[in-house]
Automatic annotation (TrEMBL):
One matching Pfam family: CCB3_YggT
Record keywords, A-Z: Membrane, Transmembrane, Transmembrane helix
Superkingdom of origin: Bacteria
Identification of the protein by name: Membrane protein
Family classification: Belongs to the YggT family.
Transmembrane segments: 12-34, 70-91
InterPro entries on file: CCB3/YggT
Amino acid sequence: MILSTLIQALAQILHMVINIYIWVVIIAALVSWVRPDPYNPIVQTLYRLTEPVYAWIRRYIPTAVGGIDLAPLIVIFGLQFIDLFFVKLLFELSMSM
């Protein structure tokens, strides 16, 4: 019972963190369209949160297509897959206990 509740709580927290990071990626992509001041603390925070993940993806997958960077889209799809597969798997595991 306790282990089941712990797994459910971890799955819920993982789901929440994934959703927050998806919103960070979306906001960073939208902000990049308007050419913001690079010294703005919000822009710097968004850059620090997203650029390491984008760089990792760009290392393995060419993401520039016609002048458009598809790295944010790949990140969102990857996070959605993790959310739909692993988080649901954790919930199912906790229900079977």
